[in-house]
What does this fold into?
Amino acid sequence: MPVLKGKELRIVGFLCNWCSYGGADTAGVGRFTQPTDLRIIRVPCSGRIDPLFIIKTLMNGADGVLVSGCHPRDCHYAEGNFYARRRLEVLHRFLPILGFEPGRFEYTWVSASEGQRWQQVVTRFTEQIHKLGPAPKIAGPEASKTLRQMEAAL
Amino acid sequence: MKIGVFVCHCGSNIEGTVDTAAVAAAAREFPGVAFATDTMYTCSEPGQEEIVTAIKEQQLDGVVVASCTPRMHEQTFRRTVERAGLNRYLFEMANIREHVSWIGKDREANTNKAIDLVRMSAAKLLHNRPLLSKKFEINKRVLIIGGGVAGIQAALDCAEGGLQVVLVEKTSSIGGKMAKLDKTFPTVDCSSCILGPRMVDVAQHPNITLHAYSEIDEVSGYVGNFEVKVKKKATYVDWKKCTGCGVCMTKCPSRKATDYFNEGIGKTTAINIPFPQAIPKKAKIDADFCMKLQKGKCGICEKICPTGCIDYSQQDEYVTEKVGAIIAATGFDLFDWTVYGEYGAGRYPDVITSLQYERMLSASGPTGGHIKRPSDGREPKNVVFIQCVGSRDKSVGRPYCTGFCCMYTAKQAILTKDHLPESRSYVFYMDIRATGKNYDEFTRRAMEEYDAKYIRGRVSMIYPKGDRLLVRGADTLMGTQVELDADLVVLAVGAQAAAGANQLAEKLRISYDSYGFYMEGHPKLKPVETNTAGVYLAGSCQGPKDIPSSVSQGSAAAAKVLGLFSKDKLESDPQVSMVDIKRCIGCGKCMKTCPFGAIKEIDFRGMKKAEVIETICQGCGICTSTCPQGAVQLQHFTDNQILSEVNALCQF
It folds into this structure.
């Protein structure tokens, strides 16, 4: 029972432990209501995120991927988010080449105190994904439709 | 693996919007899950006991708790599973409170999401491995950077606790800003009378090594084993021989050197001892003003010195200190008020800073304790104080409140009346922030007993009128404009991060906020620690503080260091990177990206390989995502673990 049919889309978040995961906690403590689509994976630092994780997530059928780390210059590990920024920016530009709509992936910076900002980020990103609709699936039960489209394009 | 899942109700916090029984039922179907239940309060004693019993009875070898955020109770439950005999890293948490039950009311969607989060945690747990900490030796010496009142307190407390202390001070005497003050609020105690004996204690304590006129050049190592290179700046005086007699100062012909201690009120000699109570009481030459060093002519001090300690050829010297912990107590600097054009931007000599005024009030200051206008030496009749200069002002990038200016302004208004009974003080203020013990009573006394006139409003313009100054401002309580003839204007200049604070932070690998103040570990619960193990904070380097708060934090930092050193060996966090030597191709990319220098190159049967120094590794995992071979893996956050979470969530 992965997603609630018709209600939710599959959105995965990769959040650094020190800032954004804390920010999401702060949003919870403040009872800032958010859409329920997002599932958060905790990583120690945004610099730990391999761009291949995001591609793998999208290839596995996620409709959107959101990455969030500490604000630049405020990294717990001094410079991890600088590495993250470079990698993710490159990834962002590569996604269309790989056949993913660029709007399905975004990265942002949210600090542990910015609960309200986290609420806005999640709400806006979820709306954006819902506007794009479900991503075309390349495996599983719905894959045949995508494959037909791809054949037609060729 | 046999996994046990415990879904917490957290009273009604989770159960209110999540069907925890359904979550537990769904969890029983996940791969590896042998046992699942829902409990009222998992973190309570009976709740923890239930986990321990289940581990023993069901022979579980992994536990998932679905409850609050791991930032809250991960440590608690790790200890619980450890009590039942499991390794503490065979445990995962699913955050179904902050990330689920508290952010939405749709019970169906929440339950579904909670099930997903548990599935994810269980999938990761299948890849968890037992991790063990290593023990390592520590060097029980402490380095304290900054010899202000916070650093002095920390040094004395550590030394009294039996530690060897290395105190490094940038200027030629310890004492910091407090040594410059005439009196302290709210008791109007003589500042140097209370600080002076402490400074002497520092000089005489057998456990304290003082490096004055020195700076931190390099810091390497990690908690327990830091190596710090200290640069001892050239003083051109052999301090081993100097007795501090001061004869050189009386004869030095270069009398126009900037007097830093007196905040530029008056001048001093090129060779000088900053103030009579200086510790160490040793002379140094200000090379910029010394005729011998600049032009090669003079040499009077060398001839006159009774101990022959002058050495014009002295060079900077470097010493390396090995310590186990570091306390940063670098204090603050005054805001550069000359950005305020409306206050004359430094054009009018009779507009001075509060610290300059403090030196003027001090009996050991350049005016011998007489209040004189810098322009003509006349005694002022009307003294106007302007508060919040470089505090609470977004337009100059200082939106924060310095916190102690309200108090010292009240003190200076009181002292002004004491020195000049005929004078009248006016104070322009925004709000009076007097929140300490006996503080508000003190500001009241300034108004009521000492007749200081407090005007709520900002000053818009200061301009000269004859030999006086005209101060124009608003009185927002009366709703009128005010114009005052002032003989002297004193600006209550706010505090900002000390010059060079950012560079030092980068050497210490601690973070600083947007104003340059050092970041504490947690704003409420870790006010003294930093996020770098073994580095602590004391005093205003963390944010503007008055003397009692600085002293408290100095003592608190000392207590932290004494606590750290109460063990003979430290345990390292096993969530560090490990290199798979078979996969490593020795490209060296991980060494370049590691922010901590925790990866070194080794020679393995003639091949270049990387090796992680476990005690330095902080566990960020930047190397893991850099390694083109997947050879470096951050333990507990390996590629396999993260990808198993992805797979648990997304399988079409």
Notes: Chain B has a mean pLDDT of 93. The two ends of chain B are 26 Å apart (CA to CA).
